[in-house]
Specification:
- With 153 residues, this protein is α/β, with parallel strands linked by helices.
- It has one domain: 3-Layer(aba) Sandwich (Oxidized Rhodanese, domain 1), CATH 3.40.250.10.
- It is 39% helix and 11% strand.
- It is built from 6 helices and 5 strands.
- The chain is globular.
- The protein starts with a helix and ends in a 12-residue tail after the last helix.
Length: 153
């Protein structure tokens, strides 16, 4: 009986662990604190938008770099390890997944922008869009950096 109870407890524990939010590796950062840091010049965080290219071109946090969460493992070299990395998406789910990918690869300075993109827009914060949305989507969809194609308006 004890073995059966222990087995059930272990299975239940594993089930609960498997559904915990992935962004537990991310430290929440308020929009206000983020904005203060973003204006800090050289000490500004690296801002990582992990949404799709289409979502990114529709509007993103100024200065953000887009690497969709499902491409991140193949593009780790684009994310600096020596800076704070602030991640966001639409709801937090993809940011959590991306944060886990980064943590699994030795990144330790990981933050999650509170409110993600909807919260950013809701507070009336500035939003960037690329000059040429189609060129930006094409460049981002190719899986590589797209700074030139995604230059902001």
């Amino acid at each position: 009986m004890k073995t059966r109870t222990l087995t059930l407890a272990l299975v239940a524990g594993l089930a609960i662990w498997s559904i915990l939010p992935a962004d537990s590796v991310l430290t929440p950062v308020s929009q206000e604190a983020f904005l203060e840091r973003a204006e800090a010049g050289a000490d500004a965080p690296f801002v990582l938008d992990v949404r799709t290219a289409e979502e990114f071109v529709a509007g993103h946090v100024p200065g953000a770099v887009n690497i969709p969460h499902d491409q991140l493992a193949a593009r780790l070299a684009e994310v600096p390890k020596d800076k704070d990395v602030v991640l966001y998406c639409r709801s937090g789910k993809r940011a959590g997944i991306a944060g886990q990918v980064l943590a699994d690869n030795g990144y330790a300075r990981l933050q999650h922008l509170e409110g993600d993109m909807p919260g950013w827009i809701e507070k009336g914060r500035p939003v960037e869009t690329p000059k040429d949305a189609a060129a930006c989507v094409a460049a981002l969809s190719s899986g590589g950096p797209a700074q030139t194609a995604c230059a902001a308006n």
